[in-house]
């Protein structure tokens, strides 16, 4: 196991009716910017509950955060904050809303060009407005981590930043708030969480039995409950286990002391920037092809994954790896997610655009061993056609 530091200050309020705890978490004299996305939070009644629990605090609302949150939209929120003396932010929504709120919190306190927060991967952030979150979509883990992904539609980039100043102070996770979600969003959430775990697990062994066992348990849980969540939207236990698994998938625990990959995410971000394909669906496109392309370097963990996650223990090593990759692809299909670029309107002509975009951002050696260079990206994308 590698050395690690672990820090996570986010307080979690989990379970039925925990929205009632909201009012006690925010200073009574706070001027609050309420940040949310489209109309789903309003239609579900979540926003009405939040407004009630905020009581007599000064509340300014800022809606319209996109599924892939836009830099330009976030900048508008910064102006609203300045005009209304806002000193606390509350995100109500899924990962996109929370990601946007993290950027808004950091950019409000930043004295330079806010775009530098993205180009520096967050290293220039020294403070941020305090904020909390009410989670309505289990997927990204943003409710309990310091990372954010922001899209700049103007130049076609999707950029990641993280900072220890950008953890939510608290997050409220009520599984009942997910009952009204469309099946597409549930499928995306399960897939996103699944690949988050894979990115921290399917690398190379470092004798981290605790982290490996934890990751494998989370993967098996998603494989079991993911399809059930699509057909049983009002089953509390299924939604509760899904919500908590998605949080644990990216809150720092399973990734402590182990190597990380993240190349499926880096390549997938460029697909989203190219044609706005749902983030989770880009991961389902890339991951199976990447597993096959990198099978030599990932061999030990692929065999462990086959045995401990899919119970594939017989036949030759290569046959077991093939079966594990096929099982992964089949799982995405069971979630109603297609796994080929061509099924999202992309073809061989788009491959070079994606490779060039990665190169322009210096991503010429990605993955846990920096073995995925532009030529490897081309191979992976060609295999995913």
State the gist of this model:
By secondary structure, the protein is α/β, with parallel strands linked by helices. The protein has helices spanning 40-43, 46-54, 71-84, 95-109, 115-119, 183-201, 209-231, 236-248, 263-275, 279-293, 299-310, 317-334, 348-360, 374-383, and strands at 11-14, 31-36, 58-62, 88-93, 131-135, 147-152, 157-162, 170-173.
Characteristics:
single chain; 385 residues; alpha/beta; Rossmann fold; Dehydroquinate synthase-like, alpha domain; 2 domains; six-stranded parallel beta sheet; two-stranded antiparallel sheet; 14 helices; 48% helix; globular
Description:
The structure is a single chain. The protein folds into two domains: 11-177, Rossmann fold; 183-383, Dehydroquinate synthase-like, alpha domain (Up-down Bundle). The protein has 14 helices and eight strands. The strands form two sheets. It has a six-stranded parallel beta sheet, sandwiched between helices. Strands 6-7 form a two-stranded antiparallel sheet. 48% of the residues lie in helices and 11% in strands.
Number of domains: 2
Oligomer: single chain
How many E strands? 8
Net shape: globular
CATH superfamily of the largest domain: Dehydroquinate synthase-like - alpha domain
Report low-confidence residues grouped into runs of 5 or more: none
What's the helical proportion of residues? Answer: 40-55%
Q: Find the CATH topology of the largest domain.
A: Dehydroquinate synthase-like, alpha domain
- Largest sheet strand order: 1-8-5-4-2-3
Average pLDDT metric: 96
Number of helices: 14
Indicate the CATH class of the largest domain.
Answer: Mainly Alpha
Helix/strand structural class: alpha/beta
CATH architecture of the largest domain: Up-down Bundle
């Amino acid at each position: 196991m590698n050395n690690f530091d672990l820090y996570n200050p986010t307080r979690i309020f989990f379970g039925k009716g925990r929205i009632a705890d909201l009012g006690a978490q925010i200073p009574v004299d706070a001027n609050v910017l309420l940040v949310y996305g489209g109309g789903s939070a309003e239609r579900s009644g979540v926003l009405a509950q939040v407004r009630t629990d905020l009581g007599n605090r000064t509340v300014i609302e800022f809606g319209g955060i996109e599924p892939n949150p836009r830099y330009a939209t976030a900048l508008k929120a910064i102006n609203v904050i300045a005009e209304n003396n806002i000193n606390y932010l509350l995100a109500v929504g899924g990962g996109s809303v929370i990601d946007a709120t993290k950027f808004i919190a950091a950019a409000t306190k930043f004295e330079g060009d806010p775009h530098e927060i993205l180009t520096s991967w967050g290293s220039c952030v020294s403070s941020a407005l305090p904020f909390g979150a009410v989670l309505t979509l289990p997927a990204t883990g943003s409710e309990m981590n310091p990372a954010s992904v922001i899209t700049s539609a103007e130049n076609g980039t999707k950029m990641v930043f993280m900072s220890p100043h950008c953890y939510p102070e608290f997050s409220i996770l009520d599984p009942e708030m997910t009952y009204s979600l469309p099946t597409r969003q549930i499928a995306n959430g399960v897939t996103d969480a699944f690949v988050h775990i894979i990115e921290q697990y399917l690398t190379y062994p470092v004798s981290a039995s605790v982290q490996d066992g934890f990751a494998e348990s989370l993967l098996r849980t998603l494989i079991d409950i993911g399809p059930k969540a699509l057909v049983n939207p009002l089953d509390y236990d299924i939604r509760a286990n899904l919500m908590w698994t998605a949080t644990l998938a990216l809150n720092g625990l399973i990734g402590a002391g182990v190597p990380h990959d993240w190349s499926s995410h880096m390549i997938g971000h460029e697909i989203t920037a190219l044609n706005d394909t749902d983030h989770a669906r880009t991961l389902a496109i890339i991951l199976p092809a990447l597993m096959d392309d990198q099978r030599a370097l990932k061999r030990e963990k692929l065999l462990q994954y086959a045995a401990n996650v899919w119970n594939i223990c017989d036949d030759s090593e290569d046959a077991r790896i093939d079966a594990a990759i096929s099982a992964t692809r089949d799982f995405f299909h069971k979630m109603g997610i297609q796994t080929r670029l061509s099924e999202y309107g992309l073809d061989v002509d788009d491959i070079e655009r994606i490779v060039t975009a990665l190169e322009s951002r210096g991503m010429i050696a990605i993955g846990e061993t920096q073995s995925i260079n532009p030529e490897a990206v081309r191979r992976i994308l060609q295999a995913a056609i």
